[in-house]
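note to self: dont lose this again. the chain is below, predicted strucutre after it. 336 aa total, dont forget to put it in the shared folder this time
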Amino acid sequence: MQRSSIVWFCVAVSITVIPLSAALVVTPAGVDDGFTISTFVNGFSGIYGPLAQGIASNGNVITGSRLDRKIFVFRDVDGQTRADAVASTSYTCESSNCNFAMATAGSQVYGAQAFGGIYYHFAQDGSFTPIPNLEAAGLRGFLGMWGNPVNGHIISASNRGLVDINPVAGTFRVIQKNLFPDGVTVSPDGGTAFVAVGGGVSSYDIATGNLIRSFATGHSPDGMGVITGGPLNGDIIVNNNDGTVGLLNPTKPAGPDLFTIIARGGTRGDFVSADTSNGTLFLSQSEQVARLSCGEGCSIGGVPPPATVPEPATLSFLGLGLAGFGLAQWHRRLIG
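---
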């Protein structure tokens, strides 16, 4: 309907109120699967909070806030607010939606503003410079992106479709020119892209661009991350716009076992980002970034599971064993 055809007899203002905070809590099904949720940073407001995150080479977390028009840098610890940022850099909007999508690829942080932003490389302090050649080639960001854990490339939604970007060389290859998804993630073997598109989730072969399978979840999926290791290996965490977090098992047929809600009560779930330092997953909400952990022996987002550190008692016994072995060798040399 065109505006010229509407006759206004009164003026009514409708305001969508976004909750300032909500309790994103793990469901009983999520508890059974070993998931836990904590708050990484809060104190934001609006439809979008800090939309996506990247892990700098020094371990700090880089994120952007459209409300503040700033790139923030935080330490990688929970329980922070905006005031705890160790650095911030102001930026100007260069697109119709200047939230930054971000990804960690090859231990570097990259990003672009949604719906037409230039692709940037971020320094440790949050400052950023264009990735060479991409701007001249006319490539612009669209929405989600993810770092390929195998080769350090960026798999990204762009104005050319779904693309494979080599950020070091400043080159790109179109995977599927007709695909303009929202959230994007990549399988641990670097061969499959999972994308949020058309109100569901679809998987595509990165090498050929061919559709592998589509999944209907019914919960407005957005950001995603694939689990590596443990009993849920290969399952996909899905952050939903309706304030829930789901677990998608891509090996299951359509039915009740395909998609399980593991957390609910959030504000508006959007992008997710892998914490490559420890295998947890950042979940963007309207007012905060939550952190999801899948427990011991697994990680989320294509990151290898963290090495198991022996308990102090185990280390003590190991030390005694090594000492005993050394004494035995010394005794053998004496009597040999």
